[in-house]
Amino acid sequence: MRPVGRITVPTVIPERLSRLRDIAGNLWWTWNCSAAEMFRMADARLWEETGGNPAAFIKRIGSRRLEQLANDQSFLDTYDDVVSKFDAYMNRSDTWFSTTYPELSDHMVAYFSAEYGLSETLPVYSGGLGVLSGDHCKSASDLGIPFTGVGLFYRQGYFNQRINHDGLQETAFNTLNISELPVTQVTGENGEPVLISVELPGRTVYASIWQIKIGVVNLYLLDSDVPANIEQDRHITSRLYGGDHDTRIQQEILLGIGGVRALEALGIKPTVYHMNEGHSAFLCFELIRRNMIKYGISFHEARELVSSSLVFTIHTPVPAGIDVFSHDAMDMYFTSFRESMGISREEFLSLGQDSGNPYGFNVAVLAMKMASGRNGVSKLHGAVTRRMFSNLWPGIPEDDVPVTHVTNGIHTLTWLSPALRKLFDKYLPEGWETRIYERSTWKNIENIPDEELWEAHMSLKKSTIEHVNERIRRSHVSGTVVRHCKTIDPEALTIGFARRFATYKRATLIFRDIDRIRKLLNKENAPVQIIFAGKAHPADKPGQDLIKHINDISEQEGFTGKVILLENYNMALARRLVQGVDVWLNNPRMPLEASGTSGQKAGLNGVLNFSVLDGWWREGFNGHNGWAIGTEAVYTNEFHQDNADSESMYETLENSIIPLYYQRDENGVPTGWVRMMKESIMSLAAFFSTNRMLQDYMSKLYVPAMKKVCDFVTDGHVDCQLVIRLAQWKKHVRDNWNLVSVVKGGSGTDGHDAGAYADIVSAPGSKTTLEAIVRLGALKPEDVSVELYYGIIGDDGEIINGEHLPMQLCGETEGGVYKYSADLYLTTGGEYGYQFRVFPYHPLLTDKFELGLVKWAEH
Q: What is the 8-class DSSP label of residue 612?
């Protein structure tokens, strides 16, 4: 019987325990196990029933039990300790940011992301992008960076997954119970919810704002489910990545444009706007429009001002993974907005166009063109991104395309198991958790006795296996798997594979030679088992087919009890697996893994990585901290790539991984394996942390953006004349760039005139002076930079790994024609090629190729 109404009886908390609400309402508890233990100590059964959710726990715990706890000295000691730690954290004055950048304390970073994975108790995330966003916020809090997050509040979150008796994925959406979530609705002075609005075709859509506290960082999520909206608009933010293209563009308008308006309504004035993926790219338009109105400047002038404040991170290694909207859709949703900015339809659409798809509006292209700072999420992905977007900077070598990289990391204390944290507290220097990003912090891992580390690992593993068995019994997986789940052996070598089931991740690669893997899993005295988990997007039929294929294999002879498929993968299950298996398997099709972070979580916990050399593992693998699948070679034939990688996988399992795991000393400890566990932690923990990642974002992207914004400020106010002069200078350069050319060039020391490009013989280490004659037309020497570009000549006749050297102005040879020279010293023998290039220069440019203009000497 459905009720016709509800009666809410709030929990009365004794004054002595009044801080329980503060701690339950701040996600600080997600990375402080002492807080979680406090709640467990209060009522272990209720803690389990609520799924470790403090907000639900506080709502459900009885007042009588709280009165008992208020008189329980043992609990009060724990409570006081947790409150003391919480207050000390929240009131720090000597954070990494405050000591490193004291002059930037007034500059806020606003971080926009479509999803945030902060805790399984707040399921508004789908996978790696969201979890990274959550970890990003947590480390911003740890480091004391002035930082605010912006996103959308999905009342139905991402889907719950069930796998039916036929191995087919089924999806279900549950509406979140807001009263049991760590969220607070933002209200005004009148007590009413604060609403912001955005314009959609023929109507205005409103959204309320929910606040989430993440340590000292605030996250604000917009929710369209408000009475002021018509019914269809109340569902805009119902589901993450749900609906059709119309829903997606509406969500992105609300995130980008609405997000900026929400910050204004809250009185938050960021210096830097960080677009995490292209979902929020429409914020560019809102910021430009606002600055046009505020300062009475044109679109192009406002764009200069806005661009200085924008940072864009792309996580996608292929164009197919980026939202592209039709021109008709852009006309429908943005015509009035475009008209308010005073630009033509053609110019507006060109902001999201590239040569690869001139008929669609690509939000990543928009963000790339607008932002002053851009990055991929690993060293390899930075190179992939520069190649993918090189057509936006024609004529510029890929290595010079203005996209840097910041390798992803993880929030260490969120993903570190309590058992290992106790060991680290015992053997690492005091206060190690505040210096996670320092490599020296982790040296003492070597001092942990092998027996203690192995005992901690096996305790975690047994707990994980028990959880897996219980989870399967409660699941909807086929009866065959359930019947055999009791055969899962905590002593057997256990491999974990858990992630989004996209086809490029090749979840079934290990079954390419089905007979060979069957034999490997069933070796006498050396058993192996594999645990799989992951969701496929409801619209991804090939991904769902992978799930069914694994389910079918798990029922075959020789695989029952050896191949386990778990349903409804989430952060709680992820934490169990990365802490409690022995080997973490990752075999995406290279180079399609932008970064990946699940292996970083495993490596931190001493779980050894077994991965292709893609994404983060290309940087993390050192030959002693895990294993590589295949080589760094990139195949053009997928069949051959799969054959090579699967063969490498089988060879490594059979000859290295399985023997090492079962090679034990007299105490039953696999000392060789434990040595690799220690190397994994020592080599990976510092660099692959979001604390280090945020430091890189600060130095590479946030600080340059803050300083560029400050370049436009005089006496505390935006210098509009400076902005206008920069925009006018750029227009002048673009209008006259066709008149720029390198007329002549050559050696000024080899007896030749600077005319034909002579072949030069130069002794190692000797000086070679190269000269170029450059026609600038209507431009002046101060408007350009001229460089010598040189490097070894490859087999294809091209310069490879080119380097550059600035050339000095020697004088004007005739009207608008100038001579430049540079002295080159080559110490290593070989055949080198050289070139000359000219590009615009202005002291306010963020990058020398910001305008995407370059002229080379013609052959």
A: E
pTM of the model: 0.95
Distance CA 184, CA 611 (A): 41
Q: Are 597 and 128 in contact (CB under 8 A)?
A: yes
Instruction: Provide the terminal-to-terminal Cα distance of the chain, rounded to the nearest Å.
Output: 83
The CA distances from residue 385 to 87, 398, 506, 647, 696, in Å, are 43, 9, 22, 30, 18
Strand partners, 610: 585, 627
Whether the per-residue pLDDT at 755 is higher than 60: the answer is: no
CA dist., res. 587 & res. 622, Å (int): 18
Distances (CA, A) of 520 to 370, 480, 484, 513, 660: 52, 21, 19, 11, 14
DSSP state string for 35-71:
HHHHHHHH-HHHHHHTTS-HHHHHHHS-HHHHHHHTT
**Rounded Cα distance, 841 and 380, in Å:** 29
User: What percent of the chain is predicted at pLDDT more than 90?
Assistant: 87
Q: Strand 808-814's sheet: what is its strand order?
A: 741-747, 767-775, 817-825, 808-814
Give me the DSSP letters along 293-319: HHHT--HHHHHHHHHTTEEEE---SSG
Check pLDDT > 90 for residue 368. yes
* β 563-566/583-586 pair status: unpaired
- Please determine, for residue 541, whether its predicted confidence score (pLDDT) is greater than 50: yes
The pLDDT tens digits for 692-721 are 999 999 999 999 999 999 999 887 889 999
Token pair 């007034």 in the structure block, residue: 106
Is pLDDT at 241 greater than 90 in this prediction? no
Domains along the sequence of the chain with CATH = 15-90 (no CATH), 107-162+170-408 (3.40.50.2000), 434-688 (3.40.50.2000), 735-856 (2.60.40)
> Which pLDDT does position 756 carry in this prediction?
55
Per-residue confidence (pLDDT) for residue 481, from 0 to 100: 44
Q: Decide: residue 320, CB within 10 A, 0-12 exposed, 13-18 middle, 19+ buried.
A: exposed
Yes or no: say if 608 and 627 are a contact pair by the CB < 8 Å rule: yes
Contact 479, 525 (CB under 8 A): no
What's the average model confidence in pLDDT over 602-625?
Answer: 98
For 352-364, what is each residue's pLDDT tens digit? 998 777 889 999 9
Rounded to 10°, the helix 450-474/571-580 angle is 140
Angle between helices 299-307 and 363-370 (to 10 degrees): 80
Encode pLDDT of 65-112 as tens digits: 999 999 999 999 999 999 999 999 999 999 999 999 999 999 999 999
Q: What is the C-alpha to C-alpha distance for residues 204 and 206, in angstroms, rounded to an integer?
A: 7
pLDDT band at 1, cuts 50/70/90?
A: low
The per-residue pLDDT for 684 is 98
What is the distance between the alpha carbons of residues 772 and 775, in angstroms, rounded to a whole number? 10
**Phi, psi at 771, each rounded to 5°:** -125, 150
99-107 contact pairs (CB < 8 A, 24+) = 100/698, 101/698, 101/703, 104/703, 104/706, 105/146, 106/146, 107/146, 107/271, 107/272, 107/706, 107/709
Residues 280 and 252 sit within 8 Å (Cβ to Cβ): yes
DSSP 364-407: HHHHHHH-SEEEESSHHHHHHHHHHTGGGSTTS-GGGSS-EE--
**Would you tell me the crossing angle of helices 73-90 and 33-42 to the nearest 10 degrees?**
150
Yes or no: say if 467 and 575 are a contact pair by the CB < 8 Å rule.
no
- DSSP assignment of 99-160 equals HH-GGGTT--EEEE-S---S-TTS----SHHHHHHHHHHHHHHHHT--EEEEEE--TT-SPE
| Dist. CA 796–CA 837, nearest whole Å | 21
Average of per-residue pLDDT values in the chain = 94
Classify residue 558 as left (phi > 0), alpha (psi -120 to 50) or beta.
left
d(CA 760, CA 138): 57
